[in-house]
């Protein structure tokens, strides 16, 4: 049975032309469609907007029977069906908005072969009667859209999706294809296991965004971040600056305002109406720049976003690429720059701690809610109230704890876009007295997974390979090649990454000996005593108070590179750091010192290459 070719009633290319008016397939579509029409089960991963729908709609038109499409959102379903009907495809939907007689009518239509595509909500499969009705239907293909919804600890879990594996068995295991935009290996495995796909083909494609120029810039202080933002917004007028926290959104907005740059701010702490208003101003193009947390994005449909800046490292490559991907939706060139400082990973770790509260914390929240419930078994409290009264340190942990409780069926959160919660209501009074059962290992697993994701993001920041290629490989695409458009690709091709001239070699050895003078040799190698800024001041021969007070003007290396601007020296040190000749250890303050390789280069024992900074690297618009 498996893989058996069905008699096709049309070729994919013919269907593409006839119904959709397209002459060519998009990246990856053709391969996927030919696997499907050859009769194989499969897993298709494509980013949103990558053309996933056609991957099952075209085979549906080629197969003799009906294609069932499982789709989670009623509104989405209706849009797709309407669009198909407009194109002359016989499609319909079956969901809870229809009465049972109407559903039966459509099932009968299916049995008579009147439809090529039938969209079904996953909760239909709860009903045995529905499954029975499907038994006499010739189902050519079972297409499960948004298949990541069946992964329990994914971001969009829907319990009804879990039932689909059994439902497939009950209707005689038709050919099954799962589609999603979420590519992590865990989610992909969940999908294959729950649906018990039979020797499926697996195709990840369409993640490449050749018009995006990706860059990750190592920065060590806020002033350097501001300098980059200033340079980018003066070159490109429209874009989004993503910040990790609300506080940073306010801070960056104020900085822009001080430059006379108009922007909207957007974060989860604003009221609904404020956020709607801000979003509206941005989408209607009244203001070109948005400073926002990751709450900004769902439903942002503005094609002409020319830049996306990440003010801090995001929590995962998935989040990074999704946010960066909001640039250049119109296909024109756009830049994405992340301002990377290792210290910012602490913010993300704090989020992970909050997002995965321990079972003890969840019990604490639960107990508090139980005590506070009124006669109707309801409590209305804000997150802040609960955090304070239940003695939980972090309001994020409260929100996540409640989400976990909600999955157990006890509590419903009142929120907007699943992100914020103003009040909490206990549901199902009969369940109130039951004991809270928590799957502790699942919470721990999610915590570990989140940390892995952050680690991958940090690795990407330190990697010196093509950014685009690194990301595509992470998402599981094979046969990738360097994009030629990212910072790493440009560095290489610009040719300023090379071995030093004799003069440059001497300059680097001077710089490194300055670092050595301002470090100490500890038991485990070099230890820093000063930050990069102070070291540069010393090398440049600065007469600033800090230098004089610390008597750094008395070092033998003082003023050794006084012929260079501090801007140049800043770039040089960034390159030295990129090449691993100096390292910065971040404790309370970032302290710079020599690496083992740096020491060898300093003493002339090892050769090196470097990205050589341009001569005019004085920071833009900043007094030093
Ligand atoms: P997804 O479901 O992956 O989010 P869609 O299937 O909605 O993406 O497709 C995104 C857009 O690309 C749609 O506007 C669709 O019409 C268009 N599209 C899909 N396939 C092709 C094609 N072969 N040629 C041109 N445009 C296409
Ligand atoms: Zn590249």
UniProtKB/TrEMBL annotation:
Residues 228-387 form the Helicase C-terminal domain. Its EC number is 5.6.2.4. SUPFAM superfamilies: HRDC-like, P-loop containing nucleoside triphosphate hydrolases, Winged helix' DNA-binding domain. Keywords: ATP-binding, DNA-binding, Helicase, Hydrolase, Isomerase, Metal-binding, Nucleotide-binding. It comes from the Bacteria. Its cofactor is Mg(2+); Zn(2+). The keyword Metal-binding applies. Gene3D superfamilies: HRDC domain, P-loop containing nucleotide triphosphate hydrolases, Winged helix-like DNA-binding domain superfamily/Winged helix DNA-binding domain. Coiled coil: none annotated. CDD domains: DEXHc_RecQ. Residues 33-201 form the Helicase ATP-binding domain. One of its GO terms (molecular function) is hydrolase activity. It catalyses: Couples ATP hydrolysis with the unwinding of duplex DNA by translocating in the 3'-5' direction. InterPro entries: DEAD/DEAH_box_helicase_dom, DNA_helicase_ATP-dep_RecQ, Helicase_ATP-bd, Helicase_C-like, HRDC-like_sf, HRDC_dom, HRDC_dom_sf, P-loop_NTPase. It is an enzyme of class 5 (isomerase). Belongs to the helicase family. RecQ subfamily. This is ATP-dependent DNA helicase RecQ. The lineage of its organism: Bacteria, Pseudomonadati, Verrucomicrobiota, Verrucomicrobiia, Verrucomicrobiales.
């Amino acid at each position: 049975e498996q893989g058996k070719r069905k008699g096709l009633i049309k070729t994919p290319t013919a269907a593409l032309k006839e119904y959709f008016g397209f002459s060519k397939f998009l990246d990856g579509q053709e391969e996927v469609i030919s696997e499907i029409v050859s009769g194989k089960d499969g897993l298709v991963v494509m980013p949103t907007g990558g053309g996933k729908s056609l991957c099952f709609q075209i085979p549906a038109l080629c197969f003799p029977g009906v294609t069932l499409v499982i789709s989670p959102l009623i509104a989405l379903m209706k849009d797709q069906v309407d669009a198909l009907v407009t194109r002359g495809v016989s499609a319909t939907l079956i969901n809870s908005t229809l009465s049972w007689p109407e559903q039966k009518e459509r099932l009968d239509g299916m049995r008579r072969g009147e439809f090529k595509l039938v969209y079904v909500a996953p909760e239909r499969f709860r009903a045995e009667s529905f499954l029975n009705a499907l038994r006499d239907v010739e189902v050519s293909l079972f297409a499960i859209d948004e298949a990541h919804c069946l992964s329990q600890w994914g971001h969009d879990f829907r319990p009804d999706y879990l039932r689909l594996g059994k439902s497939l068995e009950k209707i005689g295991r038709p050919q099954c294809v799962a589609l999603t935009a979420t590519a992590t290996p865990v989610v992909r495995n969940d999908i294959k296991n729950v649906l018990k796909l039979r020797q499926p083909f697996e195709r990840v494609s369409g993640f490449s965004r050749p018009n995006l120029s990706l860059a990750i810039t190592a920065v060590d202080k806020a002033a350097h971040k501001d300098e980059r933002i200033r340079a980018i917004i003066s070159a490109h007028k429209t874009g989004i600056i993503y910040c990790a926290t609300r506080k940073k959104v306010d801070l960056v907005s104020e900085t822009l305002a001080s430059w006379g740059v108009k922007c909207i701010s957007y974060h989860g702490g604003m009221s609904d109406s404020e956020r709607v208003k801000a979003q509206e101003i941005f989408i209607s193009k009244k203001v070109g720049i948005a400073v926002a947390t990751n709450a900004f994005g769902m439903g942002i449909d503005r094609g002409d976003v020319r830049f996306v800046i990440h003010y801090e490292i995001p929590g995962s490559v998935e989040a990074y690429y999704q946010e960066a991907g909001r640039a250049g939706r119109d296909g024109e060139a756009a830049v994405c720059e992340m301002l990377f400082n290792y210290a910012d990973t602490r913010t993300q770790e704090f989020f992970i701690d909050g997002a995965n509260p321990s079972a003890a914390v969840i019990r604490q929240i639960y107990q508090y809610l139980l005590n506070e419930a009124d006669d109707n078994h309801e409590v209305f409290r804000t997150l802040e109230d609960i955090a304070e009264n239940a003695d939980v340190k972090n309001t994020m942990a409260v929100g996540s704890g409640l989400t976990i409780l909600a999955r157990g069926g006890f509590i419903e959160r009142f929120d907007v876009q699943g992100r914020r919660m103003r009040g909490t209501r206990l549901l199902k009074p009969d369940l109130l007295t039951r004991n809270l059962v928590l799957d502790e290992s699942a919470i721990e697993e999610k915590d570990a997974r989140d940390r892995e994701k952050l680690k991958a993001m940090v690795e990407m920041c330190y990697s010196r390979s093509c950014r685009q290629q690194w990301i595509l490989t992470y998402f599981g695409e094979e046969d990738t090649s360097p994009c030629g458009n990212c910072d790493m690709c440009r560095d290489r091709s610009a040719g300023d990454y090379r071995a030093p001239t004799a003069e440059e070699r001497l300059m680097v050895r001077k710089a490194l000996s300055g670092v050595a003078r301002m470090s100490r040799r500890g038991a485990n190698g070099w230890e820093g005593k000063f930050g990069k800024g102070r070291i540069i001041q010393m090398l440049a021969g600065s007469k600033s108070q800090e230098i004089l007070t610390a008597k750094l003007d008395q070092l033998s290396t003082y003023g050794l590179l006084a012929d260079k601007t501090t801007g140049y020296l800043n770039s040089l040190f960034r390159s030295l750091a990129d090449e691993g000749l100096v390292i910065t250890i971040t404790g309370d303050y970032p302290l710079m010192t020599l690496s083992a390789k740096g020491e060898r280069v300093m003493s002339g024992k090892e050769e090196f290459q470097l990205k050589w900074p341009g001569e005019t690297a004085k920071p833009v618009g900043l007094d030093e």
